[in-house]
Amino acid sequence: MPRSWVDGLEARARASLPAPVHEYVAHGAGAGTSRDEAAAAWRDVRFLPHVLHDVTDVGLATEVLGTRLETPVGVAPTSLQRAVHPDGELAMARATAAAGGLMVVSSNAGSTFADIAATGVAWWLQVYLPSDRTLALPLLERAVAAGARAVVLTVDTPVVGSWEPAGDRVWDVVDPAFTRVNFDEGHDTQPGAEKALDLGPHDLDWLAERTGLPVVAKGVLRADDARRCVQAGAAAVWVSNHGGRQLDRAVAPARALPAIVRELADDDAEVYVDGGLGSGTDVLAALGLGADAAFLGRLPLWALVEGEHGVGRLQDRIRAELVEAMRLAGCRRVADARDVVGSPAPV
Ligand SMILES: Cc1cc2nc3c(=O)[nH]c(=O)nc-3n(C[C@H](O)[C@H](O)[C@H](O)COP(=O)(O)O)c2cc1C
């Protein structure tokens, strides 16, 4: 039995989505070890709550890369939103805008950047870079023109982690054109359009220079790599194992986060985290381990089965859970959460 409405989301989505779409969203790479451990690791975090602190007035407002948000919980970039609900990214964006949140838009989104921006949501672009970097320029220019406030370079995907679908493949039931609406026609067949295998720190700098936007490195699990990203000009490091969809048995983000926070403690760079976060209490753990913001990947997709309403309800629930957890931990502001983790998950 699910413990809450949020816990039951996946089961309800599974009952209504075509099986290959559900499986595509749910799967982890390989044996699914990293996907499962990501969620379990948040539950290993123990709090050391404050008492006798006035928690009448709890506020979740925060600022990431200069954008004020009403919540420290953002929507991670995911493709196939249109396969989950016909309104896809637009429903996700409207609900996120209403919550005063941040949406990170996948370069494989099924809605145009201009349409997403027209919802009024604060949004960042996520990109993979191709072997021939110049082929990314039209996409980057479109995102800048449509008002993206930062560029997130996903650094953990030189190749896509493999897995075995149980039945039909998702592309047997979903038109791959769904993922190409922001690319030039014929982009994928151009020489050099395949994912770059030679990504390096200089690519972060190149993106900043070409877009004029702050750049975030997404998919970092090691403190030495976090340092290299910041030295190369990254404004933020996003601790993630891609929801366990890349290298199976990669360490859980909750376990990787503390060392990266320590490494960057004296820098201006921000630190975010995603992977397996399933409740407001998990978000408190992420903030407690030092993240400036936390992101949800699959949960908003499961909620999107019920369109804008479903995503809005998810955001309300997570917000209410986080406010309750903060009150119980004696925190009034997001920054107060920094010292409420008593025993961090071992790194
Ligand atoms: C269906 C699906 C599609 C995804 N597509 C992308 C993508 O296009 N770019 C990217 O950087 N990450 C992508 N991710 C990874 C998410 O951004 C995020 O890192 C991960 O889902 C977080 O874990 P969680 O699902 O446990 O919350 C995808 C994840 C899922 C489940």
UniProtKB/TrEMBL annotation:
The record's annotation in SUPFAM superfamilies points to: FMN-linked oxidoreductases
Q: Which family does it belong to?
A: Belongs to the FMN-dependent alpha-hydroxy acid dehydrogenase family.
Q: What CDD domains does its record include?
A: alpha_hydroxyacid_oxid_FMN
Swiss-Prot/TrEMBL cofactor(s) = FMN
Instruction: List, for all copies, the residue spans of the domain called FMN hydroxy acid dehydrogenase.
Output: 1-347
Q: Name one GO molecular function term.
A: oxidoreductase activity
Q: Does the keyword Flavoprotein apply?
A: yes
Keywords from UniProt, A to Z, are:
Flavoprotein, FMN, Oxidoreductase
The species this protein was found in: Nocardioides kribbensis
Enzymatic class: oxidoreductase
Q: What is the name of the protein in this document?
A: Alpha-hydroxy acid oxidase
Domain of life, per UniProt, equals Bacteria
For this protein, what is the EC number? 1.-.-.-
